[in-house]
User: What shape does this take?
Amino acid sequence: MTEKLKILITGASGFIGSFLCEEGLMRKFEVWAGMRQTSSRRWLQNEWLQFVTLDMAHPDVLRSQLSVFKQKHGRWDIIIHAAGATKCLNPADFDRHNYDCTVHLVEALQTLDMVPSLFVYVSSLSVLGAIREDYTELRADDMPQPNTAYGRSKLKSEQWLLGLAGSGFPVVIFRPTGVYGPREQDYFLQAKSIRQHIDFAVGYKPQKITFVYVQDLVNAIYLAIQKSVEGQGSVVEGKIYHVSDGATYDSREFSDLLQRFMGVSGVLHIKAPLWFLRTVCAVSDWWSIHVSKKVSTLNNDKYRILSQRNWMCDITPARRDLGYIPEWPLERGTKAIVEWYKKEGWL
Assistant: This one.
């Protein structure tokens, strides 16, 4: 009987990570969920899923953990590095969570001779910043100019990983646009607002938005893994892929779909100027840092993301190299998440 390929998914307890685990099990991998000791297993209940504790913040501890794993189980064939932080109280913490932990993990793998046949890094379209406000598609070969602390930390990780290409470290990078789906909480805030008959939009200049349903992103990642497993790793190694559902939407379409599938009527659509949003985010950021000591959804990074007018992105390379075909347009995905919200009692 052929031995199952072992796959490690870091950040497994997170929104995207949990779906990556489920897909790996469905595809008959031996799936290891990499997470901190304190991470929740709420979405990780499959009996075939295996767990490994990884303290990527402390390199000495991490090397010891990986060494013990290697002695018992050998190395992983594939690693998907989905761990990281999208919100931090202190901007400097983005580097600590997104860059330092990535470096610690890769260096430990190299030291212990545990380099996988493919290392998938889940980055973000935010690494590019507002470089194409002329409403042309963001491309993987564009010169990044990140305008958020989160985007800068992700770009720093990308550049470091790509710099290892000459040393035989096989990496592929995915930059998804806004990812939504069951279990995700940021887009859910908009659904809560719609339920209260209020919808906020910002800026008077047209905004072109893109989305990717979580299962489409997961499928794209596993298409790249399939290339590696089939011995076609050279097709994807060292590449960067943007991922969306292939369509572009205006700023009202998502809220209109939420309203329709939730059956809510009489929604007040409020459009605020950017200066108002900037003020609210600045005050919220100050309050979070100096008073509540808790991360706020509205902060200075969020202002820059919401004020960006163009999130159109070119997914042609993913279609060409991976055979990626998006299956979840926004209407289908929105209907699915509303049904899930209701089933889980979120709405």
